[in-house]
Amino acid sequence: MDTPIADVSDTAYWIAWHRALESERADALFRDPYAARLAGERGKSISEAMPTSTVVAWTVVLRTRIIDDFIAFALEQGIDTILNLGAGLDARPYRMTLPGALRWIEADYAHIIGYKENCLREEQPHCRLERVKIDLADTMARRELLQQVDRQARGTLILTEGVIPYLTNEAVASLAEDLRGMSRTRYWIMDYFSEMAQQYRQRQRINQAMQNAPFRFKPGDWFGFFTHHGWKLKDVRYFLDEAQRLGRPMPLPRRLKVMIALTRPFTPKSRLQAMRRFAGYSLLEPSTRH
Prior knowledge:
The chain contains 13 helices and seven strands. By secondary structure, it is of the alpha/beta class.
């Protein structure tokens, strides 16, 4: 089967395209004037080829807004460093209102960093932006980066947007341990997928379309996994809750909306609760230290 995504790096163009589309809306939940430039035709073509791009677009918009809110909270708590691991084509240092003294470090593959630097070479970030070309799967190089950041920070926020699901359980455990070992790490922003969401994804065509960039992280109990590795939940924002709060309902076919409305009174409360907590984004903080 021909797939629009050659490897995990291609997802960065896809996601940037959805941020660009949101930015064109009159009721946009955020504005990213750099997203279209970063996504390019590659992002558009991937989006048009993906079978579930409409729903993905909805989650991208919500996750972007949630992460923006988490970052604002962390800044209020006094963090002075943001380490964005697997930064992709994120343009927050340019589009968000940030303290000029904030140190923002983007780490990703060399070709992604090079492409991004070229696209934004004429732009000025709102903070002290640094970029690091690194394969985060290189454990020694990653640990060296984390140690360097930790020595120079007073309070660090780790951001892994759309990164964790593509890693194996073993790789996530190693990363979680490394991040926990940073003495000045205050918070960690990451994805959240319930066990129901993980099982649902296995049944959908998106797995075939993304066979070159599959989801590998299958912990079962998502938060329990990170609790075991020294992290505790500070906050979680579920997509359906945020969609209701922000007036951005999930884009479902009319017939499916009608069916859901008709069956809702007969659906067990436990099932409705699980559906509401299907997926979202989470803010963790260290619970223990070495």
